[in-house]
Amino acid sequence: MTREYLVVYEYANGSYSGYAPDLPGCISAGGTHEEMRKNMRETVENHVGSLVAQGNPVPSLVTHTVHCPKPVEETDTQHWIIERMEIEIPVSGKAARELASA
User: How many domains does the structure of the chain reveal?
Assistant: First the structure.
């Protein structure tokens, strides 16, 4: 089963930090945009996988973007990058039905 999450990256002081608004506490950091994307993907996959493995509910997807501008260059002093991240959630049976209805 796949699920798409909105992720937000902030570039400031030479590095990135990021979070997924629909997954409280799901945050990460990286030195470059690509490193941040890789780290954030691992964080989201681990976070959701852990929730499913423990039988806990996965938060509903409620965050939407109205306008998602083209990312600016890393040379800018401070900026935000907002993108959608699709992840594969390894589930079967009851857990898959519950996630599909969330």
Answer: 1
Strand partners, 4: 86
CATH code (residue 14) = 3.30.160.250
Instruction: Count the neighbouring beta carbons within 10 Å of the beta carbon of residue 50.
Output: 10
pLDDT digits (tens, 9 = 90+) for 41-89: 999 988 988 888 888 888 877 776 655 555 555 555 556 677 777 777 7
Question: What is the spatial order of strands in the sheet that 15-19 belongs to?
Answer: 27-30, 15-19, 2-12, 79-88
Higher pLDDT, 5 or 83: 5
Q: Is the dihedral of CA 74, 37, 61, 50 positive or negative?
A: negative
User: DSSP letter at 67?
Assistant: -
